[in-house]
Amino acid sequence: MKIGYARVSTQDQKLELQLDALTKQGCELVFQEKKSGKNKKRPELAKMLGQLRSGDTVVVWKLDRLGRSLRDLIDLVAEFQKRGIDFVSLQFTRWYQYGNFHRSLYF
Asked: Which residues are catalytic?
């Protein structure tokens, strides 16, 4: 199952751009959050992590929507890999789609 995660940092910001992109990508379920990425207590992210199963794909609009620090991003992607969960960042994928890059992140 494709599962999306959309996040903005403040209550004033809008999620619509991300939600539209995730819907077009075929996400059947999207978790939405209005919290700073620096905040480790993100209830919707925790809820998503609890529902993920092997074979699922997590889709985000941009890498920084999942985590603001490189360490957080590395830890989350490593957890996905360990659990058999695929990960797609739409902006990153579009950026290297036409190059000679392997379509996985390795840390």
From this structure: 9
